[in-house]
Amino acid sequence: MAECEQLIKVLKKQLKARGVTYQEVADALDLSEGSVKRLFANGGSLSLDRLSAVCCLINMEMAALFKLVSEDSQSLTTLTRQQEEELVADKALLLVAVCITNGYRFEQILAQYNLPETLLIQKLAHLDRLKLIELLPENRIKLMIAPSFSWIAGGPIQQFFQQQVIRAFFQSHFSGEDEKLVMSTGLMSLPTNYKFQQRIQRLVSEFYESCNHDSELTMNERHGTSMVVAIRRWTFPLFDEFEVDEGASSELTK
């Protein structure tokens, strides 16, 4: 039963990453949305035929899904707050962690950054203790992060990103041929907001798929590239003083 639960967990993660809704799954299986939710809540009742149909819906081979399940069960899905604090507190350790999650090999890190070989080995050994990687003979690196890995919401890494990375990232006019900034505002219902969140998740998946597609190119042909996408219900605070007080508005309409 534990294996079935793991399978459902990874499958739901893949559905979310592609922006596929329960209703779309229901249509593919010729079931009601409620039946699909109950099916996913009780993974043991998901037949191979139905699993195959869901995999076809998201254009994924069943073998690839089973491989993700195996990797997910053996790999790290999150760090503790203390472990995240260790990364943030050590700039060199954080640099090496970012490099290995982006697919750098040992010699590529040495070639690009001014890190002594002994220090790099120390930092890799530290990441090995954190279970982020497995440091293999001849300084080969095996990434041990599960496909479902995530940072703690509001944790040290996320706070570091919001306080330092975002500020540095937006110090640009975004006028170069390799950069683009778009901000859109409008009035939107919550259901439409949720649909856009699913599209954003799909875009993020495409970003990583594109990076993986370019992994066969040389390091000189690839460049560090970051994408920040966000959506929230929000109005510019500068205009708050002009907002009509909702309580006062209700009194006027009585």
TrEMBL record:
This is Transcriptional regulator. The lineage of its organism: Bacteria, Pseudomonadati, Pseudomonadota, Gammaproteobacteria, Vibrionales. GO terms for molecular function: DNA binding. It holds the Pfam family HTH_3. It comes from the Bacteria. Residues 11-65 form the HTH cro/C1-type domain. InterPro entries: Cro/C1-type_HTH (IPR001387), Lambda_DNA-bd_dom_sf (IPR010982). Gene3D superfamilies: lambda repressor-like DNA-binding domains. It comes from Enterovibrio norvegicus FF-454.
